[in-house]
Specification:
Elements (H helix, E strand, L loop, with lengths): L1 E4 L9 E4 L12 H10 L9 H16 L43
Antiparallel strand pairs: 1-2
Length: about 110
């Protein structure tokens, strides 16, 4: 299998290089067999520490708690009335008037 690689430097050319992949016997064991052995051998980079997980949740939880409500609107329209709030003082937003006959629905 070949790949095209750019050599170091400013020249914008690529060289064809052969990609050689090798597999190790341990990689054929399913994760359910590898993971307990890795834990017993102290391979900590495969496992999340509790303090790191807690720090990540402290960052993510406020984002998850700040849920934007969903607004419904009629199919074929320009969106919910609440969308006009997005334009703020730069408005007003002017919705083009489109008749139902001009809108091609996928089921039609």
């Amino acid at each position: 299998m070949g790949r095209r690689l750019k050599p170091p430097g400013e020249r914008m050319v690529g060289d064809d290089k052969e990609l050689v992949l090798t597999a190790q016997a341990a990689s054929y064991r399913p994760p359910s067999q590898r993971l307990p052995g890795d834990a017993m051998h102290g391979l900590g980079d495969l496992f999340a520490r509790a303090d790191i997980v807690n720090a990540q949740w402290r960052i993510v939880q406020p984002i998850l708690d700040n849920v934007t409500p969903l607004y419904t609107y009629e199919s074929g329209s320009w969106g919910p009335d609440e969308a006009t709030q997005l334009i703020g003082g730069d408005g007003p937003w002017r919705d083009p008037q489109v008749t139902r006959a001009e809108v091609k629905m996928p089921s039609e």
